[in-house]
Amino acid sequence: MFSENEIATMVEIPEVMEATIAVRKEFIENEVSMLEISEHDFLSLIMMTPAIGMALANGSMSLFEELALNKLARKMSKGGYFLKVDPVAHAMKYVMKNFDRWEGPFYNVINLCMNSTFDRKKLLEVRSCGIEDPIKCLARDLMEVPYIFVRFLSILILNDESDILGHRSISRVEFDKIKDVGNKMNISEVPAFKSFLNTFEVK
User: Fold this and answer.
1) Mean pLDDT rounded to a whole number for the chain
2) Between residues 86 and 153, which one has the greater pLDDT?
3) Model-level pTM greater than 0.85?
4) DSSP letters of 139-160?
5) Do 114 and 120 touch, CB atoms closer than 8 A?
6) DSSP 66-105
7) Is 202 strand, coil or helix?
8) Phi, psi for 188 (deg, rounded to 5)
9) Cα separation of 69 and 52, whole Å?
10) Cβ pair 23, 105 in contact under 8 A
11) CB 148 within 8 Å of CB 157
12) pLDDT in tens, 130-147
């Protein structure tokens, strides 16, 4: 996931700030009128969308998954909320209850952030290394893409980019959700994303 400083940098991009404010206004009007959440923290909430979607992929969310999401929320929140209610974690509960409604608008902002931080066309120009071992292939492919893309890739299901290079066993439902997220983020045709998919073992 992104660090607090990375979120702070992205939210300062004028078009990202504008989109974040607009979606936050709609969210507060429709979900929780008394919610007090900064632009920084609301963008952090938006970046939680892929992880929330993955946690909900099997139809319900376990306590372990909810605790893991709360940990991610605290990592990106502006300032410390160790002994106070974290605004991202608080707002996340409303997203979980009405995920189908907010998934689209939130992904629109994520795509805007991606468009504002790297050139998508260059990602398509990088051809996969073709190494047979999927982990080694992904490692080589990630060296050819911008660091910020690796950070965006890490928000799919992982806590941080250091976990990307490893074999993972997941259900068919979860794997299909990852591919769906790839479509929503407009990265399904990126060679590095395809290499990433090859590191999963579907149960």
Assistant:
1) 87
2) 153
3) yes
4) HHHHTTS-HHHHHHHHTTT-SS
5) yes
6) HHHHHHHHHHHSSS--SSS--HHHHHHHHHHHTHHHHHHH
7) strand
8) -65, -25
9) 7
10) yes
11) no
12) 788 998 998 999 999 999
Report pLDDT for 39. 95
Q: How far apart are CA 47 and CA 109, in angstroms?
A: 9
Number of Cβ within a 10 Å radius of residue 29: 9
Question: For 99-104, which contacts have Cβ atoms below 8 Å and span 24 or more sequence positions?
Answer: 99/52, 99/53, 99/56, 101/30, 102/27, 102/49, 103/49, 103/53, 103/184
Region of residue 59 (phi > 0: left; psi between -120 and 50: alpha; otherwise: beta): left
Residue type, 64: F
Q: What Å distances lie between residue 57 and 42, 61, 134, 178, 188, CA to CA?
A: 23, 8, 25, 10, 19
Q: Determine the average pLDDT of the residues in 124-132.
A: 80
The answer to whether 69 touches 90, Cβ cutoff 8 Å, is no
Q: How far apart are CA 195 and CA 56, in angstroms?
A: 24
For strands 200-202 and 168-170, give the pairing. Answer: parallel
The two structure tokens encoding residue 134? 């999927």
- What's the distance, Cα to Cα, between the start and end of the chain in Å? 25
